[in-house]
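Handout, section B. The chain below has 256 residues.
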Amino acid sequence: MAIPAAPPEKMSFWEHLQELRVRIVRSLLIVAVGFAVTYAFRFKLWVWAQKPFLEAMARQTGKPVSSLDPFAFTDLTEPFFSMMRLSLWSAAVFCAPFLFYQLWAFIRPGLLPKERRLVIPFVLVTSGCFLAGAAFAYTQAFKFLGDILFKEAASAGLRANLHASDYLDLFISTTLITGVMFELPVLFFFLAKFRIVTSRLMLKYWRHATMAILIFSAFFTPGDVVVTTIFFSVVLLTLYAVSVAVAWVAEPRQPK
């Protein structure tokens, strides 16, 4: 006779708040340790961060990358705080596996014993999806955005005189939003696993999902141009299609 699975641990509301506080504090400490490392390499991170746009600018202007110097500042504190902000978000990205483990540790008490054993796959998959999204933003999204924006500027005969803080707003937001977008299959895996959604339901309401994706892309994607909205909408629709397949695999099968 099979032994029934133990029920999830029962925690009070205040115990949940205490657990949340512990996980948030540990996450902040993890990012603080990472920040101590990334801040030491802040200037190398800055060179790495501006590379996609400099390459796009070189393609549109016909000048070599080494001759381009489009960044300037008008506030004495801007370079300091810009490098600090870049170092902080870089630390959060590099520490993503540890942060996702803290997320898992928070939801773990509500899971069954067999589900708790998924900690390693959960951390690996969520970290991999997020980092894959960040890599996609760096190698593809910035190439696409840079070509469009610099082509428009070159056609208008404008000279680049950019603020580092404004560029970092675009760089950080695009990288983080794309990383979160790539978590969509993981989200639907758990929604299907807990019988909240099904692949059939997702296919039935694909028109509603498409409209929601278009609205999200219009409000949250950078660039404020229609082409970037279409680009990120296509990316999200592709991820939605992948999520349908993931949900079909994850959803529990009814016993015969």
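Note. The mean pLDDT is 84. Compare this with the example in section A.
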